[in-house]
Amino acid sequence: MEPAWHVWRSLPHYSAHVLHMSVRDMVRSIFKCDMSVFDTYIESDKNVSDLFQWYSSRALCSLPACDAFSPYIINQTACRKLCGDYLISKVGELCDKYSHIVVKEVRFFDITVLYPLLKDPSLNLKILHLVRDPRAVGKSREQAPRALAGDNGIVLNTNGTKLNDTNYEVLGKICSSHVKMYRTASYKAPPFLKDKYMLVRYEDLVRNPLSKVEEMYKFVNLKLTDQLTQWIHNITHGEGPRKRSEAFETTSRNALNISELWRTILPFQKVSRIQEVCKDALTSFMYHFMNSEAEQKDMSKDFILPMKNKLK
Predict the structure, then answer these.
(1) Which part of the chain is the Sulfotransferase domain (predicted)?
(2) Which of 112, 162, 238, 271 is deepest in the core (most CB within 10 A)?
């Protein structure tokens, strides 16, 4: 879960562009099951609990990594309490036992940085590029301004100065990077990227979770199990979130309701600003513009237009 968090936290005086190489090297090492890459960025005893949001990993919360539970998807809170004491070095040993390795990362702003990994036949890397309505992203980012202040400085290259993205400058850069990566992969793709890239819109995922996940699994040559199918249903049909601290947690929620919550909360003045800085993203990913507060609050209107992946 976002291993580059460690890179950015350790090197806050550099820009996202400069840190791309370090982030890529970290991701490559993880795909090779070489967890010694964390030695550079973690100064403590290097327990698995030192890894950013480690408890989001099913593998780290089940046998053989943790014997507190049977080898199934389990409650993150319980995993956090019972499974964090073993050494990171053991993670590398466990990693070798798995056929597939998944890394979730948000700190790439240029898909070309990943080209060396895509050309490496020993990795067989595939990219699932997740995008979301920028207006919803803006609302989500506002829930954790302190947590994101350091990242904002890196994106805007402030030489270590933390800041709040009150004018959505960072969001604008995020939107631009998504559009650039999508267009590069869809219209200017080199041969080694063929069949290696898939765009996933968050809204499509929450509106029809099982169908979209099945499509994603087919893309990476995997099959859904009955147990995982049930978990996907449960995690997308819950009541949460119950508190603000769950903004970036994987808790059981009504995913469809959560995906549209911003429309009832975000002031239209902010919606207008986000539409201004993320105009290309809204157009490229088929999110309809809103022209008034009345339009925004009218939940009978759908602003998510159909979209098909253009890369074949």
Answers:
(1) 122-283
(2) 271
Q: What is the pLDDT of residue 258?
A: 82
Task: Please report, for the chain, how many H helices and E strands are present, in that order.
Answer: 16, 2
The dihedral of CA 263, 267, 272, 275: what is its sign?
Answer: negative
Q: Distance between terminal CA atoms of the chain?
A: 28
Query: What are residue 198's DSSP bridge partners?
Result: 128
SS3 128: strand
Pure H helices in 32-168:
76-82, 88-95, 115-118, 134-142, 145-155
Domains and CATH numbers, the chain: 1-103 (no CATH), 126-312 (3.40.50)
Q: What percent of the chain has pLDDT over 90?
A: 73
How far apart, in whole angstroms, are the C-alpha atoms of residue 222 and residue 218? 6
pLDDT digits (tens, 9 = 90+) for 10-38: 999 999 999 999 999 999 999 999 999 99
Contact 254, 237 (CB under 8 A): yes
Which is it for strands 127-131 and 197-201: parallel, antiparallel or unpaired? parallel
Helices assigned H by DSSP within the chain: 4-10, 16-31, 76-82, 88-95, 115-118, 134-142, 145-155, 169-187, 202-207, 209-219, 226-235, 255-259, 262-265, 268-277, 279-284, 293-297
8 Å CB contact between 256 and 207: yes
How big, in percent rounded to 5, are the helix, strand and coil portions of the chain? 50, 5, 40
The first and second tokens of residue 72, run together, are 């199934």
Maximum C-alpha span of the chain? 56
pTM of the model: 0.90
